[in-house]
Specification:
- There is one protein chain.
- It contains ten helices and six strands, in the order H-H-E-E-H-H-H-E-H-E-H-H-E-E-H-H.
- With 217 residues, the protein is an alpha/beta fold.
- The chain has one domain: Uracil-DNA glycosylase-like domain (Uracil-DNA Glycosylase, subunit E), CATH 3.40.470.10.
- The chain has a six-stranded mixed beta sheet.
- Helix 2 packs antiparallel against helix 6.
- The radius of gyration is 19 Å and the shape is globular.
- The structure holds uracil and iron/sulfur cluster.
- Uracil binds next to helix 4.
Length: 217
């Protein structure tokens, strides 16, 4: 029999079985379909004022079950243009961080942001914008199931840890968000502006990432 027809016939039987046993409660969409659904919702989203000024929204990009999910605060100009997270100068620098601990964007990571649309002039996202957008992130994390979250910068790190401390005092220990271990560090654009102060602590944090991953294979 034609394989496509065979498969859809089998799927129909599976669905009928589920319907009889569970009253059609089971969720049949696979994980990538659900990430796609979240992306489609984000594309049409008007839950906060940032939809008015965005060019493209930036839902996030990467693999399922990644070694690390990196979370920044919001898209910048390059991201707003391309729809892809961390592709500008800061993002390219962050790729080098990952290179240094043998992690590859295309194989080992999922990269995203707290808010999915660019704030005008790259201002910090407002608390009500973060609040409006956070449901998408939570659903993404449930599906993506990273081993570890690396939050970059004060805004993302404060939101994910629930702390009001500055990033310099926040970092240096582990937290948890949605049940996933979390390591906070500086934002790559901050490190580019002030390498003498921040390069060393970032390297400590990256070593902590590496250590966690090697102990949790
Ligand atoms: N800075 C961020 O926090 N996120 C991006 O996607 C790009 C720059
Ligand atoms: Fe919707 Fe988030 Fe974009 Fe605001 S930032 S419009 S909540 S997707």
């Amino acid at each position: 029999m034609n394989n496509g027809i065979h498969n859809s016939f089998k799927e129909l039987l599976d669905l009928a079985g589920d319907y009889l046993s569970e009253g059609f409660k089971r969720n049949h969409s696979d994980e990538s379909d659900s990430l796609t659904k979240i992306e489609e919702e984000i594309e049409g989203c008007k839950k906060c004022r940032l939809y008015e000024t965005r060019t493209k929204c930036v839902p996030g990009k990467g693999v399922l079950n990644p070694e690390v999910m990196i979370i920044g605060e919001a898209p910048g100009a390059d991201e707003d243009r391309s729809g892809i997270p961390f592709v500008g100068r800061a993002g390219q620098y962050m790729d080098k961080w990952m290179d240094a601990i043998n992690l590859d964007r295309d194989k080992d990571l999922y990269i995203g942001n707290i808010v999915k649309c660019r704030p005008p002039q790259n201002r910090d996202p407002f608390p009500d914008e973060i609040e409006a957008c956070k449901g998408y992130l939570e659903r993404q994390i449930q599906l993506i199931k990273p081993k570890l979250i690396l939050s970059v910068g004060r805004i993302a790190s404060q939101f994910l840890t629930g702390s009001t401390l500055g990033i310099g005092r926040l970092r240096g220990r582990m937290y948890e968000y949605c049940g996933i271990p979390l390591i906070p560090t500086y934002h790559p654009s901050g490190v580019l502006r002030n390498p003498d102060s921040y390069r060393k602590p970032v390297w400590e944090d990256l070593k902590a990432v590496k250590k966690f991953l090697s102990e949790n294979r």
